[in-house]
Amino acid sequence: MKTYQDIKSAATIDAIIPYVEALLDIRFKCVKKNRYNAPCPFHADTKENFMVYVNKEDEVRFHCFGACKGDWDIADLIMLRKKYPFRRAQQVWAEHLGVAEFTFDDGRSPCIPEPDETAEPDEPVGFVEPKQPDEKMVATLDDAASFYHELLMSNEDRFRTVWDYLARRGVEKDTIRRFNIGYAPPYSDEQHHGRALIAGILPRVEKDPGIFNAFSDAGLVRFLNDGSVKGYGYYSRQIDFRRKDPFSRNYGDYFAGRMVFPIYDADAGVTGMVGRRPESRGVRWLKHQAREVPLSAKSWLYGIEKAAPYIRQYRTIILVEGLFDYFAFYNLLQGQDKLVVASTLGSYLTPEAATILKGLDIENYIAAYDWDELGRNGIERAAVQSGGWVYYLGGLADGQDPYDKLEPVVSAISGFSLQHL
Ligand SMILES: [Zn+2]
Q1: Taking residues 298-314, what's their average pLDDT?
Q2: Does the pLDDT at position 310 exceed 60?
Q3: Span 382-406, mean pLDDT?
Q4: d(CA 225, ligand 1 centre) in Å
Q5: Which of 49, 200, 203, 287 places its Cα 20 to 30 Å from the Cα of 7?
Q6: If you measure from the C-alpha of residue 66 to the centroid of ligand 1, how many angstroms do you get, rounded to a whole number?
Q7: 302: closest CA among 335, 345, 257, 251?
Q8: What pLDDT, in 10s, does the model give residues 93-117?
Q9: Which of 64, 23, 73 is nearest to 45 (CA)?
């Protein structure tokens, strides 16, 4: 009986071309003997990066020299296009050849994951900050933040679970508006299919494809056929061949499925975003990572743009770990004109963030929650440098309202009485 290896190379390159043209809805150009090229159907290809060639073993193979950087055989292409498992892809190819019986390859494709490997991976919260502040990137992040914010604001019923989740965490409508919080619907969303932002910019992109690059460079869109990323099995299955334009077919919103929180610097310029699932499973934060931008200074301090004037006035800052810790303190402090809180978005004050605080002439550092030793070192070093004090507001039990713990502290914030706490 024939094996899969036998039928894999059973078609000549000239015979396989029409099949692949129909499969992928592309037209090849014959460049020379045993060599065909076409624009790659799996990324936004402006050239003809998709190549068909015959290797030393006489096997017809497919290669993308562009963004995909992939090298595939016919079964891989069927898997990618049809979202089939390896076994079914072999079957489809055998049927095309009219081979009734053959021995399946029981292994797996070396490059295309099986469909059951489809869970979206979780990544911890991360940071991005261009080494050189780039006006274009700031404008693009701003654009995206406003887009997601408008989407959330104008769909209160449709995104009810998101609104309810935020309300439960103390983030009400006024706060959503004030912090420009938004929502990027998931791939499973029937209207947006994880591409709300891409669909929103598509009319502009079709006139000027360079606009797409700005969003891609800012880390706001995800290339779905990137075999090098964690979760390729999940993302590659989101490629949508019903879409004719290469952008919304091959890319999705980076923050799809997440509430989006833009991060501002002290001058209220957007420096990044964090995304968080509106449900509590796994690690819920999504790392925001701009393409080809080195992860550098981790100087994010959530809320610093609102806190800066008060920090200067009271020479005091309350540092919290998480975003929702921040909002708990925000709700408590804002009505008292003592909004001196910022979140490090992690249990460590980085040297870069410490430098920003140093510029605010702080005397009293109040570290809320039990930070580990590393976190303590970071904040104590910052305090030593500016000749200030550190107060630890530890021992908050799970579920305990930070308000109870904070009330005496807040009343002590007056610029001098804190040291008597
Ligand atoms: Zn490609």
Answers
A1: 88
A2: yes
A3: 70
A4: 8
A5: 49
A6: 5
A7: 345
A8: 999 999 999 999 999 998 899 887 6
A9: 64
Q: What pLDDT is attached to residue 295? A: 33
Average pLDDT for residues 111-132, to the nearest whole number?
A: 64
- Cα 63 to ligand 1 centre (Å): 8
Q: Please report how many Cα atoms fall inside a 13 Å half-sphere around the Cα of residue 123, on the Cβ side.
A: 16
CA 51 – ligand 1 centroid, Å: 10
Cβ partners under 8 Å of residue 370, min gap 6:
392, 394, 395, 396
Residue-range domains of the chain with CATH: 4-97 (3.90.580.10), 135-286 (3.90.980.10), 304-420 (3.40.1360.10)
- Report the separation in Å between the CA atom of 47 and the middle of ligand 1, taken as the mean of its atom positions: 10
d(CA 183, CA 186): 9
Q: Decide: 283 and 307 in contact? Cβ < 8 Å.
A: no
Cβ–Cβ < 8 Å for 73, 108: no
Residues lying with their CB under 5 A of ligand 1, a single-atom ion: 40, 42-43, 64, 66, 68
C-alpha 64 to ligand 1 mean position (Å):
5
Q: What phi, psi does 318 have (nearest 5°)?
A: -105, 120
19: left (phi over 0), alpha (psi -120 to 50) or beta: alpha
Q: Tens of pLDDT along 47-74? A: 999 999 999 989 999 999 999 999 999 9
- Supply the pLDDT for residue 414: 60
